[in-house]
Amino acid sequence: MKFFNLLSLSAMLVFQQSVAFSQNDAAVQKELTLKDAVLGQMRIYGPERMFGFQWLPESDTYTCFNKTYQSMVMGNAAEPKQKLGEILTVEKMNKTLGSELSSFFGLEWLNVSEFIINDGVHFYLVNALSEGKLLNTLDETAENGLMHKKSFHIAYTIGNNVYVKSKEGEKLTVTNNTDKNIVSGQAIARSEFGISGGLFWSNAGKHLAFYQKDETEVHDYPLLDINQTPGELLSIKYPMAGQKSEKPRVGIYDLTAKQTVYISPKGAADDYLTNLSFTPDDQFVILAEVNRDQNHMMVNLYEVKTGKFVRTLFEESNEKWVEPEHAAFFPSSKSNNFIWISERDGFSNLYYYDINGKVITQLTKHAFVVKDIIGATPDGTSVYYSATGENPMNTLVYSVSVTPKHTPSKRITLIDGTHDVLLSSSGKYIFDAYSNHDTDYHAWILNPSGKAVKQLMASNDKLSDVKIGTAEINTLTASDGTKLYTRLIKPSNFDPKKKYPVMVYVYGGPHAQMITNSWLDGANLWMYWMAEQGYLVYTLDGRGSAYRGFADETQIHRQLGTVEMNDQLEGVKYLKSLSYVDSNRLAVHGWSFGGFMTTSFMLRYPDVFRVGVAGGPVTDWKYYEIMYGERYMDRPEQNVAGYEKASLLTHAKNLKGDLLLIHGTVDDVVVMQHNYALVKKFVELGIQMDFFPYPMHKHNVTGKDRVHLMEKVLTYIIDNNQ
What we know:
Number of helices: 11
CATH class of the domain at 469-720: Alpha Beta
Low-confidence stretches: 1-26
Mean pLDDT: 94
């Protein structure tokens, strides 16, 4: 049975790129409900998109899916007038395969006619011109399945061990640790340093590298599973600041010899091994090793066959911190020369190295942040990368030539906004999807220079018939002259002659940016619902937040909550200067670091906000994890005064306004001890406050229960900010 015939593509169903809404100027706009605002931001009101866009290898053909990933469509960049045609549905594929795949999500094309797809246990090879077949089946308890796309070997984990299932179905045991404290094949360092997984195939698929961590000395932390009768202990490993940490190493398994060699830190046993990559010739592994204090990094080279240390390619040190987040990038498959992203000159830039550790050239010299490398041209002579440009709210795309001599970069995406691009493997085309303050979602095919070739989609505004307000993006100036970006959401019936209460939504911490030049400016739709209740909703990205450069970000070092609150207070000062703001009715809400900031305001500046709602807050940094906490605060014994000042327990006696603390009962990121300790302190002081747990939720409340959460948060503010 054939799934489709490429020759008859033009006769196939036309994929609906956007949904047209009938507009009637006289019609009454519908009210936005809180439920729809919370659950429907993307599902109901999100712009139509090119979901799951992929270029087929070695071609100018591409595919994407409908919103539910049930239908696949195909097009060709070389044919600008061609409409997208449906070529396959999940229902049809399942009928042919005898499978029960729920969607096309995770599909990867191998060539112009074949793709692989899996549900985590069953791995299928599908030839879109004929029939598909089951490649392999893993144990039902298997996790983290990772297939090598050329050999079809599958690496995976069961429990704390790593296994490989060969194409022929042979099960290879890579690790066999009965000690549950030894965990292999999973993310280490609590997913800091850009780590997102623990399994890495070599280019040829003959070797498998994997992270391993020894958590023997890491404290067991108790969480309670209330779904059992009686309740059962959920024990996790949680390394708190200043205490014993995990001990990492990297294993390299040889599938031919069926043997493993190990790489251990060159420094201390609890250093961090990060950003692993195989060189194109599969002879070496490059690892970035960061010391426990996170102020020194060595980028080291190791032999794949033996695991032996070859040499240190280069080192970086900084008294604040050194934080590698990107593995070495190899622009050419025929060379071991690589590109490294470093903040050494104050902004993350691209440096081109040879395999001996010599800098060939600094490819970029931007005074703004390079975010990531997107890819290279087939011949490896040019690299495309994302960066902010002069405005940190943007995500733009640039290209630069990979030569021994520095050459100027070229901006590829000429429209300001947030761009997401993919290069075709032929190097002839670029897929560019973007949104900005004025644009919901546009998708284009560009040529390598950024010139438009074909428009794929221009989404309609699904909020056009909904009664919502507007957002204003502005800037303020911090005490040191730093430009601070702000967003103010007003109700649809805003009247400048009236006085409005304000809810400040705050995060304020590193690695996060609340305001972006994108659809809704990075805001949540529930903020617009809150505005319709008669509120102004205000957000400010201060110093320490993402994409402002090293000098800006590191001002928070050893004093979390100090510089960040000073900047937020500039925002409050601005709000109070507005004639339409009721200065006596200010509220603040945030989650995680934002919960820490919210509670800090209520306790360290108790006269500013009348109401605060803090979700999952850090209340004392000594209770937080080593990897993140020690980067910004150092160890508790190294920064006694800083930890004391930042601790909310220190300031609990100052509470004046109404404070609601919220926490998921099985939070494994900010453990519930944070809130318990603060509540206990309030009880000891005889101070009343409010506390609400979300049973069996982790660091945030997700799913349908999130509606309950936001109703709890927003009605608490409305009821207590009269």
